[in-house]
Amino acid sequence: MAIIDRIMAKAQANVKHIVLPEGEETRNIQAAAKIVKAGIAKITVLGNPEKVKAVAAETDTCLCGIEIVDPATSEKAVSYANALYEIRKAKGMTEEEAAKKVADPMFYGVMMVKMGDADGLVSGAIHSTGDMLRPALQIIKCKPGIKTVSSCFLMESPIEEYGVMIFADCAVIPNPTAEELANIAVAAAESAKSLGEIEPKVAMLSFSTKGSAKHENVTKVQEATKIAHELAPELKLDGELQLDAAIVPEVGQLKSPGSEVAGYANVLVFPDLQAGNIGYKLVQRLGKAEAYGPILQGIAKPCNDLSRGCSVDDIVATVAITAVQAQ
Ligand code: ACO
After folding, report:
1. Radius of gyration, alpha carbons of the chain
2. For a substitution probing ligand 1, which of 110, 128, 134, 306 has the most ligand atoms within 8 Å of its CB?
3. CB of 132 closer than 6 A to ligand 1?
4. Count of C-beta atoms within a 10 Å radius of residue 230
5. Which member of 15, 144, 211, 261 has the lowest number of beta carbons within 10 Å of its beta carbon?
6. What is the pLDDT of residue 76?
7. Residues of the chain with pLDDT under 70
8. For strand 201-205 and strand 267-269, is the pairing parallel, antiparallel, or unpaired?
9. Is the CB of 304 under 6 A from ligand 1?
10. According to the model, what pLDDT value does residue 307 have?
11. Residue 233 confidence (pLDDT)
12. Distance (Å, whole) CA 232 – CA 219
């Protein structure tokens, strides 16, 4: 069974409540209908009910079982504004600004999750990644003990020996420090277990393997490897490794003899966002792998981003992943 089908089945077995802030948008409405019909999650869409109904009618989509909440008139708006003011006042937010912010579905949705009125959030079909991430980072923040929110892609290769893999970070931290890179690695290993159902073998990728090249970018990956070992001593993690040394057994064992990871890695940690973002897209487009994400990791409650080019099925899959994270 494909990994995404296993995730759908998990979501159906323990139904969570997911909010879709972009509720006036066609693909979100169509996805909401599919999700509710398949019993993957309970759904609240945010938006003006008349507009939501009009968009649903245009595509002949049934809104049965979908809750519609209008942030502009919601009875919870005042309590959310008060809570948001308390969270952000130290950063200079005024009560008036907080009230204005919660009328924006992107903030209202994040407040629903923060206040426990929804288990998770999915948005980004009509917002940039930055605009989607900022409210989540400012309000939901990191899980206890984690210093950095990052992201991963759940990849499924059609090449049997590779199968399910985790790629990180492909969407959030443009130029991570060594410490951030180590945090990304530890969080990606956790995502591998919880979403990918695989025992993580983490490769810290570079253009160098075990000192074969000298450069400040290589030094950063070497430092990150050391920090990650300190953070999670039990984790199977090796670095720095070139991509072939990470995933091709003969190359891995030649360049890092005796390593449990080199040649067998299933979690690939890219040295920065340029490499990560380009890397997952190469594997998706040229390698014809399925790519699910970006999936936020290290955040206190699940909030996930969509690509603006997403399909209805992409939204359904992201909601299922978010629901499983919420379990
Ligand atoms: N982890 C935890 N908290 C964070 C992180 C992080 N990685 N990044 C920012 N924050 C927090 C900050 O501490 C700050 O909190 P505070 O206001 O309480 O002090 C808040 O979030 C806002 O921080 P800023 O520095 O103002 O946010 P910034 O403008 O740097 O935006 C963002 C952060 C949106 C993640 C930015 O780094 C970004 O745009 N990343 C790239 C996103 C992107 O374009 N990805 C590629 C496309 S996605 C794709 O192709 C699938």
Report:
1. 21
2. 134
3. no
4. 8
5. 144
6. 96
7. none
8. parallel
9. no
10. 87
11. 96
12. 20
